[in-house]
Design goal:
- The structure is a single chain.
- The chain is an alpha/beta fold.
- Helix content is 42%, strand content 21%.
- Strand 8, helix 5 and strand 9 form a beta-alpha-beta unit.
Length: 393
């Protein structure tokens, strides 16, 4: 019996020791993991290098993982980097933890795989995921040779569509078992309700620019510096911090002085915005021809962004309030109130004083994009395309 007890104690000791070793070697959840899908397979490649070097001025910390999938025109290999602090401003120095040959960064499945890999290998309490590349809002300009919504890959000729972004976020949510905390586009023109609509129910906060971005893009150095100093910031606070730092960097900051826009949204407020916008659209369909002519003038005078059909929703509402309608358009105030809850930070240069942080598709003339628009989640939920057809006929 004594020998038996001794054996049991030894086995218990070995199992306990093994458990402690396994626990010590297991990945420890940090506060945040920041996953950046840097598609430099195009003419933006030099800016990709600069942005990653700026990330390395801060690097990953004991509380925040900074992880990048990096495609470059300088090599056929796409690399996954764990960003570490470096003082070498001449080149990227972070270790490559995985490399892929001829990797298509215009394939949304590869974007999803990167996020899944990042979550598995760099676990955290919160996740901020972004796509770095060219962007063109929910659709491409018909005058563009290359079609793109976001993440155009020159090597493959592929890009990630707005609809595929919705699929990607759904798959990421399924993998996480909950909503993604923050999604952002370090790309032009992506801060549209149609883009956010595809992510509805899968993402909590949504950040980006209504207008085109300068090549330098996001201010990674000052943003990461302030984030690292306060790693327990909530998803809402991180979103607002980036919005403020973006404007500051182009208002005499690290990128000089240039006209820019940026905003952060709380996507839990989309239901209220949808209901108000739906009611507004229905109200505007019930106007006479004289009022329709005034409505068209209002659309033409509304703040737009690069493409004439990308209109600022808040500015549209403000201008609409000056139009005399025979019937009271009650949904106007309702929509303004809903947008004030949805948009938690709007940070624009003075030249964009009429921008309110949210773009919506408002074509002045009918076009082939309306068929595709019918199938977008936002359009299906609100019937907004009925109004676009009414205005553009």
């Amino acid at each position: 019996m004594v020998l038996f007890k001794t054996a049991m104690v030894s086995i218990f000791f070995l199992l306990t020791t093994a458990s402690m070793v396994a626990s010590a070697n297991a990945p420890t959840d940090k506060e945040w993991t920041f996953l950046v899908f840097v598609n430099g397979h195009n003419n933006l490649s030099p800016f990709a290098d600069r942005n990653i070097i700026d990330m390395e001025k801060v690097g990953s910390t004991k509380d925040i993982n900074v992880v990048v999938e990096w495609g470059s025109e300088s090599t056929t290999k796409t690399k996954r980097l764990f960003i570490q602090k470096s003082k070498d401003s001449s080149k990227v120095t972070s270790p490559s933890v995985m490399e892929m040959e001829n990797h298509d960064m215009g394939d949304y499945k590869n974007f999803v795989n990167f996020v899944k890999w990042g979550v598995k290998n760099y676990p955290a309490k919160h996740y901020f995921v972004s796509i770095w590349n060219h962007g063109s809002g929910w659709h491409r300009n018909l005058n563009q040779i290359k079609p793109m919504d976001i993440s155009y890959d020159d090597s493959s000729g592929h890009h990630i569509t707005t609809e595929q972004m919705g699929v990607a976020m759904s798959e990421i949510k399924q993998m996480l078992g909950r909503n993604l905390d923050v999604y952002g586009s370090d790309a032009c023109l992506m801060q549209m309700i149609e883009v956010a609509g595809e992510m509805k129910g899968d993402v909590d906060f949504f950040v980006g620019s209504q207008e085109t971005e300068p090549g330098e893009g996001w201010p990674y150095f000052p943003f990461l510096t302030k984030w690292a100093a306060k790693p327990t910031l909530t998803p809402s606070e991180v979103s607002v911090l980036l919005s403020k730092e973006y404007l500051a960097s182009y208002s005499g900051g690290i990128y000089g002085t240039r006209p820019v826009t940026f905003s952060a949204w709380d996507l839990s407020q989309l239901d209220g915005a949808y209901a108000a916008i739906s009611n507004l659209g229905k109200s505007l369909l019930d106007i006479n021809n004289t009022e329709l002519a005034e409505l068209k003038k209002t659309v033409r005078s509304t703040q737009s962004f690069t493409y004439a059909d990308y209109a600022d929703m808040g500015d549209f509402l403000k201008r609409l309030k000056t139009v005399s309608f025979s019937k009271n358009i009650l949904a106007l105030s309702e929509t303004q109130e809903a947008l004030s809850k949805l948009i938690i930070s709007t940070d624009n240069s003075p030249s964009f004083k009429n921008a309110t942080g949210i773009s919506i598709w408002m074509p002045r003339y009918g076009n082939s994009n309306q068929t595709r628009y019918d199938e977008l989640k936002f359009s299906k939920a609100t019937g907004w395309n009925e109004l676009t057809r009414f205005i553009s006929k």
